[in-house]
Each structure stands twice: as structure tokens, then as C-alpha cells.
TrEMBL record:
Annotated protein name in UniProt: Mediator of RNA polymerase II transcription subunit 11
Family (UniProt): Belongs to the Mediator complex subunit 11 family.
Gene: MED11
InterPro entries the record matches: Mediator_Med11 (IPR019404)
Pfam families from the UniProt entry: Med11
Length: 117
């Protein structure tokens, strides 16, 4: 259960990063809109530029942390909460079960055909 909560936490962190990127784009749009005016509001530009810079730095730090985690997972280094191996084993087991069902269904069909003849 802890593995799922860790995975959900990682997904939530990525969603937060995505929202922050949206805010970055909105700040950039506001700055561009303000710059397109004949008379610009310097205070607004300064605030938006500062918010833009802070958000970009935060997103960069968060993405770096995510990349470091994924690098650990991909290289097999020890890390907390990795469930890749277990999930892969489970997926392979489910594929084997599906294959066995398919083969049993074929055998059942063959038996039915033989009984009908």
C-alpha cells in the first residue's frame, strides 16, 4: 500500500509542476501584454518578472528532483518505494493467465466440437 501512496505522491508532484508551468506561461503572457502597451506599468512588470523567475527556479528544482528519482529507479540503485519489479512480475503473470485462458477456451471449443460430432 505504501508503494501506491508513493507513486500517487510523485504523480501529484508532477501535477503541481504542470500547474506551475501554466502559471509561468500566464506570467509571461502578462509581461508581453504589458510590454505591448504604449505606457507600461513598471511595478506590474517587476512583480510579474519576479514571479516568473521564482516559478522557473522552483520548477527547475522540482523537475531535477524527479529526474534524480527516475535515474535511481532506472539504474536499479536502492531507493524507497520502488515497485517496478513487482509490477512487472504481476503484469507478466496476468499475461500468462490470459494466455492460459485462451488455450483453455480453445480446448473447450475442441471438446464441444468433438462431442457434437
Amino acid at each position: 500500500m505504501a508503494t501506491y501512496s508513493l507513486a500517487n505522491e510523485r504523480l501529484r508532484a508532477l501535477e503541481d509542476i504542470e500547474r506551475e508551468i501554466g502559471a509561468i506561461l500566464q506570467n509571461a503572457g502578462t509581461v508581453i501584454l504589458e510590454l505591448s502597451k504604449e505606457k507600461t506599468n513598471e511595478r506590474l512588470l517587476d512583480r510579474q518578472a519576479a514571479a516568473f523567475t521564482a516559478s522557473v527556479q522552483h520548477v527547475e528544482a522540482e523537475l531535477s528532483a524527479q529526474i534524480r528519482y527516475l535515474t535511481q529507479v532506472a539504474t536499479g540503485q536502492p531507493h524507497e518505494g520502488s515497485s517496478y519489479s513487482s509490477r512487472k512480475d504481476c503484469q507478466m503473470a496476468l499475461k500468462r493467465v490470459d494466455y492460459a485462458r485462451l488455450k483453455l477456451s480453445d480446448v473447450a471449443r475442441t471438446c464441444e466440437q468433438m462431442l457434437e460430432s
